Amino acid sequence: MTKAEALKKAKELVSKMTVEEKMTQLLYTSPAIERLGIKDYNWWNEGAHGVARSGTATVFPHTIAMAATFDPELINTIADVISTEGRIKYNKHCEYNDHDIFKGITYWAPNINIFRDPRWGRGQETFGEDPFLTATLGTAFIKGIQGDGEFLKGAACSKHFAVHSGPEKDRHGFDAIATPHDLFETYLPSFEKTVKAGVAGVMGAYNRTNGEPCCAHSYLTGEILRKRWGFDGYFVSDCGALQDIYEFHKFVETRAEAAAVALKNSCDLNCGQTYDALVDAYEEDLITEEQITEAAERLYMIRFLLGEFEEVRPYSDIPYSKLDCKEHKALNLKAAEQCITLLKNDGYLPIDKNTEKRIAIIGPNALSVTALEGNYNGYASEYITVADGIRRVFTDADITVERGCNYCHEKINEWSGFGNMISDGIAAAANADITVLALGLDCSIEGEDTGFDNDYTACGDKKNIYLPKTQQKLAEAVCDVCDNVIVVIMCGSSVDLGKKVRNHAKAIIHAWYPGSQGGLAIAKTISGDSNPCGKTPVTIYDGEHPLPDFTDYNMKGKTYRFIEGDALYPFGFGLSYTKFAYSDLKLIEKNEDTVKVSVTVKNEGNRSGIEKTQVYAQFTDSRTYTPHFQLCGIKSTNLEAGESATLEFEIDTYWLKATLENGDRVTPDGKITLFVGGHQPDKVSNALLGYECEKIVL
After folding, report:
1. Mean pLDDT within 12-37
2. What pLDDT is recorded for position 57?
3. DSSP 281-292
């Protein structure tokens, strides 16, 4: 069914509704209209890394972990599985007349905000700090969710439009000030690209941007989204955001005025209850029936595209046995393996899985399930923690497990116990030949508006980028008593272990939030059954790196594109157990829209491996400032030992443009250089990986 056909059917159905009935359909809890054969429908569902919050489903690595794969084809496959499982569950929900929250097939994912500051707690939900990576992986995810059949398999939603990345504690009343330059260079490209790729929905953010609430923004929504980009899908408020318009932003005085200003600025659907006041707004002549009708028609267009009103519902033949099946678990494990990012290896890894040595697994993430899940998660039928995974792989080893400390708080002389466990952790490490330090965070520490404010976190945002002091204390003490320390970090952001632990550790693995199979993937990486290939989707900073004020949305000094000074581990960095070499970079074709180049990559090591080739552009323009580098191409290639491959990249010249102060993207008046390799072409990456990227001047 085409959009035009769906819209025609929507218009026909909506025309049969009274104005009062139409208004009720603009709430996310859309009630039934029995006389028209319409069942109630709850629009709110989550599927960022698996169908969430409604029984068993595959829990894939969280979004930031998926980003570390640098692999849009893999992300597309994952999203296709998510929508398959979503359809299975939806079919059963319909069969049993269950239309509650989290039971529909309109998913409010992906989160394509830019992870501009490493302290932001919701950065784990994003594809990282780069506009190209976010746009590319976001588009792949959306196409996987929505499918390519006659009907939408599921409806994806790009969020949170458009300038949104903390602080969490202030989000309901905060005004994010962004220049036109930063808007069009950093904050808007991922939305533009996903809109033009056909995303069904867009969600507005809680905050204001440049003075206007994002869910009632005349410029961002009316001018840019609807007119310039031609978005014809549905726009939904973040949950409770319309209430913020009058209660915290003080943009208007009443609920009716808030409902009216949102509707007039193209917000079709309210997650919340403010659109209850549409009746008052209509009676006060603040809105027209035509505006109500237009919103209802867009919403019903989506419902028709999903096949809700078909006599035989599309995708109803997917067998229930496909839910959480062996094939989906195998894909989940593959994704977890490919997201794991090796930051340091002093030649110590991999370790023979037949070793009989004593291995201690110590830290708050040793047995943690929440650190596998991240947030916005579903519920897996099986979780393999770090300790579980190591037991499965290292079957002959003598294994002990100790938490050693809590995530964030240490209590001395606590009667209930488990407040101070450091001596137990040290004892286990002192008695071990090898210690795996399982450190990091979970969504109770970094996350969405947690409400907790202490010395480490402010409502889910970190106050610094070190480990919490309790974990730092444990890690340093373990390093004092055990020579062979492997650190496994599980979190959704940049965390510095501190110089002592960094220097002492034989290896450092960043596993992000790796999904329900994550512990097995980590163990297979340590043993060498899996060769790590993840790349950092964010800059990992030294804990002492001076960061700009968190509330400052100016991009200067932020992310790899505008960093001042050096990164600890740069964006795009990750080690392997093999070595790749690049040669023969050639320009194939160049025109106004695309640039085609080819390069040869060879696996020069003695084991197979997956290389994540990256293309970066460097350009200058006398009229404006430009990024140090801009990612503009990625490709994942599996090569056997000694094998070579010639890769071709077709680069959209959109990513080779300079952004002027007024937001216009223009061809640079200076030279454009392309760099191709397995990392960013900065000096730190060159030193860490031991080679420089191939380069060519266009």
Report:
1. 98
2. 97
3. HHHTTSS-HHHH
Tokens of 383: 């979780």
SS3 at position 35: helix
The DSSP secondary-structure symbol of 155 reads B
Closest CA to 113 of 160, 157, 69, 67: 160
Give 342-375 pLDDT, tens digit per residue: 999 999 999 999 999 999 999 999 999 999 999 9
Half-sphere exposure of 194 (CA within 13 A, CB side): 40
Tokens of 16: 């049969």
Q: Which residues pair with 611 in a beta bridge?
A: 637
29 bridge partner residues: 42
3.20.20.300, 3.40.50.620, 3.40.50.300, 3.40.1190.10: CATH of 1-37+158-305: 3.20.20.300
Ordered by start, the domain boundaries in the chain are 1-37+158-305, 334-551, 580-697
Q: Which residue type is seen at 118?
A: P
Structure tokens at 573: 């960095």
pLDDT at 693: 98
Rg, Å, the chain Cα set? 25
> In the CATH scheme, what is the code of domain 334-551?
3.40.50.1700
Token pair 């550790």 is found at 505
User: Chain-centre distance of CA 537, in angstroms?
Assistant: 10
Element (H, E) at 190: helix 189-196
238 is catalytic: yes
Select which of 238, 244, 542, 682 is catalytic. 238
Architecture of domain 580-697: Sandwich (2.60)
Helix 326-339 crosses helix 518-527 at what angle (to 10 degrees)?
A: 60
Distance CA 245, CA 533 (A): 45
- Cα(664)–Cα(318) distance, rounded to whole angstroms? 47
Distance separating alpha carbons of residues 360 and 345, to the nearest angstrom? 19
Q: Under a CB-based contact definition with an 8 Å cutoff, are residues 508 and 344 in contact?
A: yes
Residues 6+ apart with CB under 8 A from 259: 242, 270, 274, 275, 277, 278, 280, 281, 287
Q: How far apart are the first and last CA of the chain?
A: 43
CB 559 within 8 A of CB 116: yes
- Judge contact between 489 and 498, C-beta under 8 A: no
Question: pLDDT at position 461, please?
Answer: 97
- Across the strands, what pairs with 569? 540
Count of CA atoms in the C-beta half-sphere (13 A) of 313: 19
pLDDT in tens, 421-447: 999 999 999 999 999 999 999 999 999
What pLDDT shows up at residue 137? 98
Measured between alpha carbons, how far is residue 260 from residues 52, 224, 251, 268, 446 in Å? 32, 20, 12, 11, 35
The rounded distance, in Å, linking the Cα atoms of 378 and 645 is 39
Q: Is 693 exposed, middle or buried (CB count within 10 Å of its CB: 0-12, 13-18, 19+)?
A: buried
